[in-house]
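Tokens as discussed.
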């Protein structure tokens, strides 16, 4: 049973931040409510005040700027999935959204709510880490930016200070000859990932050497993580199947899976060994065509 609370629906970001500053610890942000309401119903969270930002249109946008794509926090998954500019400039993001939950969930759930919920099995954070995205958060003291990989801290824990809101995600313009891919493994279609991998590969001009690579893992640690040691296996080399296999094995040692009803720790590590080579190979193929 949900405990009584007072509901605020601010019209502007400024108003929302003032409410968060005023009510502090007793207060929770709600956007789509798809994750928060479950926690409230289970009695795991019982805020006295709720600041509802779903109606904040100033955070509902997709912009194609000089420094990359900018997505406002209240933008729904479905809007991102269907966006022509996302499909053109960052197809991996649209592909990821298509695999996230059902259309009903994507129609109402927001990108900001998803990232801030901090579910280690959430899809977007993994892709944002691989794409080297930057998150912008705002609070009473102003704005700050951080790399996506620094935002996911632990099991359902993200790097938001009290009174802060996530406002925007920026995906930088990729260097030439860059390709990205995302693979989600789940047992039930439209369910959360049992394991997921996102990879971005940048090739050097002409020589086919891997100039840069970013590999991110989901659902195989208490938070979405970057597999830096696996990246080192590939960086500066011509990627071969043998190197991809090695990268998968190294990534499996970087994972720290939490066993649950979907899969054991061992099974998840095995998935990493398979999904890292598969996803990175797809990113490589796309980089060759970019
Ligand atoms: C049936 C079902 C299936 C799902 N399957 C998947 C899946 O396959 N993959 C996946 O990734 N997700 C999945 N989800 C999660 C779903 O995508 C998220 O619930 C949704 O994206 C969260 O967004 P929301 O707007 O509903 O957030 P809310 O529930 O409103 O908020 C979630 C959390 O984020 C905080 N918050 C919200 N917005 C902000 C903000 N801008 N700044 C700071 N804090 C904020 C809230 O305080 C709360 O702690 C599923 C959910 C359901 C109900």
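Sequence:
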């Amino acid at each position: 049973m949900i405990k009584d609370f007072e509901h605020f629906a601010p019209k502007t970001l400024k108003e929302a931040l003032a409410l968060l500053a005023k009510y502090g610890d007793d207060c929770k942000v709600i956007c789509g409510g798809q994750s928060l309401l479950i926690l409230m119903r289970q009695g795991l969270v019982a805020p006295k005040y709720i600041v509802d930002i779903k109606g904040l249109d100033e955070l509902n946008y997709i912009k194609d700027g000089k420094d990359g794509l900018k997505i406002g926090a209240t933008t729904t998954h479905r809007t991102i999935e269907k966006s022509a500019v996302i499909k053109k400039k960052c197809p991996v993001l649209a592909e990821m959204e298509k695999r996230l939950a059902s259309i009903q969930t994507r129609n109402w759930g927001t990108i900001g709510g998803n990232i801030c919920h901090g579910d280690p099995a959430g899809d977007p954070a993994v892709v944002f880490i691989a794409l080297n995205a930057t998150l912008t958060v705002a609070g009473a003291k102003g704005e700050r930016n951080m790399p996506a990989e620094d935002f996911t801290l632990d099991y359902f824990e993200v790097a938001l200070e009290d009174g802060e809101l996530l406002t925007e995600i920026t995906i930088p313009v990729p260097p030439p000859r860059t390709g990205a891919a995302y693979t989600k493994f789940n047992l039930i279609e439209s369910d959360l990932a049992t394991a997921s991998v996102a990879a971005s590969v940048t090739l050097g001009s002409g020589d086919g050497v891997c100039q840069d690579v970013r590999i991110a893992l989901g659902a195989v640690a208490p938070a979405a993580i970057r597999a830096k040691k696996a990246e080192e296996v590939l960086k500066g080399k011509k990627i071969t199947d043998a190197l991809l296999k090695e990268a998968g094995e190294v990534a499996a040692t970087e994972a720290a899976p939490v066993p649950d009803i979907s899969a054991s720790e061992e099974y998840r590590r095995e998935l990493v060994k398979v999904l890292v080579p598969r996803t990175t190979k797809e990113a490589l193929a796309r980089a060759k065509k970019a």
